[in-house]
## 1
Amino acid sequence: MLRFSRLGAVVAMSVLHMSAAFAAQGELASEIVRATDSTESASYNAVVESIRQTVIAAQVSGAIVALPVKAGDSVKEGQVLVRIDARSAMQGSVAGQAQAQAARSALELATKDVERQRHLFQKQYISQSAMERAEAQYKATSEQLKAQMAQANVADIQSGFFVIKAPYEGVISEFPVALGDMAMPGKPMLTIFDPKGLRVTASLPQTAMNNYVAGQPIKIEFPGLPPSRQWLSPTHFQVLPTIDASTHTSQLRIELPESTSGISPGLFARVWLPSHGASGKHLYVSSKAIVRRGEMMGIYVIDSNKRPVLRQIRLGKSQGETTEVLTGVSAGERIAVDPAAAVKEAR
């Protein structure tokens, strides 16, 4: 995890003007070491995802006979993507319609017959049992027509499965099938995504959001893009309430603006999350005040007798004309700004 200090111009200027003491001519130029609040940004690897992405599979089996589009094409809602051989399905649909028509004719005949039997029953020319048989025949024929019509409708619906259309406007990202391949139910045929709805997803440690500085903007970096389009400052983000039991991380999702160009699912990104430092305070001094002698880093501290004393220090990150001091000095101490002059004064 990378970290860098964002102090900005205001902090740098405040350090350079830390009560620089210029007494009478001949005295050492000095400054006071002061602690400065700082906000650090931690970076986390992330990836671009599509909010709406669909893997389209076949619902029926058959040979692929037409592929009007290819990977990378932009498609409209309802546009034909794949055609599967539907000759057998069409024959089944025709047979279903014929059977439904036959059942409809049988019902018409049964309707006329039951009406005739009712007329004869009223004149007591037939028995009660004959009348009941005619009504039962009519009901059976009616139910048979319903079943045949349902089967015909199913055949018509299934015939529509042989033409695969785009469910929404988007871009085809994967197209692993070719002309002549055999389509099988459940076998993925292509992947389509909506380029207008993208997000960046990063996996964060459990403590990352606890250290997040509320109100500070989160930044997204795209190292693979040109410098003019490498950085974005989104306004909406979401932290999923669940934590992965194996990695002990939670997901941070950041929505990208619709106007974002050159970004597609799978692109590598970094999320820079403003967070509090371990101590919340950082000590900075002028870089020119640091003494470098081999591997030893030091600084001249003005003691109570106003004499410079060399003290070894450990340095942190540099920011402009200032450098962070991790150990060796404390806030409020006065240091010499000019090491060369301090050496002469120490003698």
Note: The radius of gyration is 40 Å.
## 2
Amino acid sequence: MTVPCVAVDRERGEEVRRRLAEAGALAGEYEITVENGTIYLPVTAREDVPPPLRRSIIERDPDRRETPTTPADLLGYEPSIERLGDIVIIDEDDDERASAIAKAVMDSDIPCETVVNRASPIEGELRVRQWDVLTGDDTETIHREYGHEFALDITEVYFSPRLATERHRVVKQVETGEHAFDMFAGVGPYAIPMAARGAEVVACDLNEQAIEYLHENAERNDVADRITPLQGDVREVAADWTGWADRIVMNLPHSADEFLEAAVMIAGDDCLIHYYDIQHEDDPFGPGRTAIEDAAGDAYTVSVETERVVRSYAPHEHNVCLDVRLTRQ
């Protein structure tokens, strides 16, 4: 029996799988397969598939799969969990409930070596959390995202898998030969894919451990020749890169405004800045736009190309991104 399948290049597989899942179009009773660089995603029916993907539908005869056991099957409710490599992250104030979820995760079919519970908010200038390790003992993992691998230790560096779609949105805009500067690079989730698309990338971070992982990840993803890692406060090195950048990523949403003077210094004659901010829902974009205009002064014409809510951050607060082009006057 044949089944309609969306066929796309393997590197687009996760993006398309998410879109199909959001549309309720994935046929979960069939195996997803990969052959010769193409991934085949079984779907429920042609009409369930988002229109832009319908032209990629072909008929296949995929194997049926056994339905995996999920934590919800064992608990009787759907827990809120987040996967980062082979680490599962939960966020529970109740210790007994947290232990029950951790046990269910380990007894389920989720590939997992360690379960941790958030024990603090993101803290300090290095943006790291405290964690309660509930099962397992290894807080280092390899996270895979849109065809790239990132080694990291969650106790040493900041990394949010929830931002994968947003990172991919930015990376898809990068063209071969660009000069891209990531001002708060972490272990490289922006820098490495940008380099893979042919950009020359400078990646700076204050966290020494993050830069060590960035070196490792650049080698792991075969882009070390196109990335220059810098450890330290980007404001202290900005003068060395005056006028260099065609693109700047500023993913430090609580305090990116404090670094805009450095960003303007780094910007070339025509530079696109991806500026991340956290603001109240009443005016999520205005403060960032004003801050960038003030920093640019008379040196640049400022035009906002995109205003995007990335996710809800807290009640009545949004994590947003402004894509802003600076054109030297």
Note: The longest helix spans residues 95-107.
